[in-house]
Amino acid sequence: MLLATGTAKAAEPIQVAWDPDSIPPFPAVALKALKLIAGTDTSLLELCNLIRSDHAFSTAILRIANSPIVAFPKNVTSVLQASMLLGFARLRSVAITVGLRAYFNNSFTPLMKLCWRHSVACAIIAERTAKSSFQDNEFAYTAGILHDLGRVVLATIMPAAYARVLECGADQPQDLMQIERELCGIDHCEAGRSLVTAWNLPEAFVEITACHHNLPSHCSKANAIVSASCSLADSLAFGVTRYRSPRSYAEILLDFPETARSRFPAEPEELYSAIALEIKVLESV
Fold first, then answer.
1. Fewest beta carbons less than 10 Å away: which of 164, 173, 235, 270?
2. H-assigned helices in the chain
3. Beta-bridge mates of residue 17
4. Which residue ranges make up each domain of the chain?
5. For 210-251, what is each residue's pLDDT tens digit?
6. What is the pLDDT confidence band of residue 5, given thresholds at 50, 70 and 90?
7. β-strand partners of 170
8. Which of 238, 243, 247 has its CA nearest to residue 275?
9. 2 vs 179, which has greater pLDDT?
10. Whole-model pTM?
11. How many angstroms separate the CA atoms of 194 and 182, rounded?
12. What mean pLDDT, rounded, does the chain reach?
């Protein structure tokens, strides 16, 4: 379907096509790992064998298992060993993270790097929040990785149009989404919802991709964590765009559950450094 966009804040109208059925899917390993979240399959060995069948994923998993993120005292030399060390839930999350990185398909442009770092930062914050709030931290991490799936794909298939979206700037996320609709024909939240449906991903990711810019008080518990984590990642300079009216680190912390809020550093620099280190490791795989 061809979508003609408006001209607001743009030199001329742009015409772009959004057809989720024609968009390259996630790598097979990552898609399989995602579908395991639905509870239709819980086999660590099956996921391990799937990873071993893909050279790029095998290499990436081994490098992560031997990285400071895991900090295992001995060298991990096989995917099976890495699987046992990481456990099913963590292996699944790592496979999805590697899948997002692989989706960029060697086009790791500055825009792609911004999208990647924002997603990972959001995932790390969401995982930490869920763990301290006695919620499913592995799901929270995966939700954080995937919350901006629509933006990642828009930036991948429409790089020029999306670069113009960012050039326009915005006061808040809702303003940015309006510009996306004008220049790309669809906003990244609706694009994310469309992809979750087209790729037959678990229903749980519909709200995550479509509603993560809602106020946390208007979200489910899982999406409230992602929403707050997305905002906090932005405030820590892991944003894709710079908003003209940003909220402060201290203000955003008030969106988190009290049990999680008390475990974040008082100053943002400490949290930024910890996240930046993990991102650096993941970017090297």
1. 270
2. 28-36, 44-52, 55-65, 79-86, 88-103, 110-132, 137-146, 149-157, 159-168, 173-184, 188-198, 204-210, 221-235, 249-253, 258-261, 268-283
3. 2
4. 25-103, 107-285
5. 999 987 777 888 999 999 999 999 999 999 998 988 899 999
6. very low
7. 243
8. 238
9. 179
10. 0.88
11. 18
12. 87
- Which token pair is 285? 């795989």
Residues 16, 3: contact at Cβ < 8 Å?
yes
**Can you identify the CATH homologous superfamily of domain 107-285?**
Hypothetical protein af1432 (1.10.3210.10)
- Distant-in-sequence contacts of 129-135, Cβ < 8 A, 24+ apart: 129/225, 129/228, 129/229, 129/256, 129/257, 129/260, 130/222, 130/225, 132/257, 132/259, 132/260, 132/263, 133/225, 133/257, 133/259, 133/260, 134/259, 135/221, 135/222, 135/225
Residue by residue, DSSP assigns 235-257 as: HTT--SS-BSSPPPHHHHHTTS-
Distance CA 117, CA 107 (A): 15
Q: Which two tokens stand for residue 37?
A: 């979240």
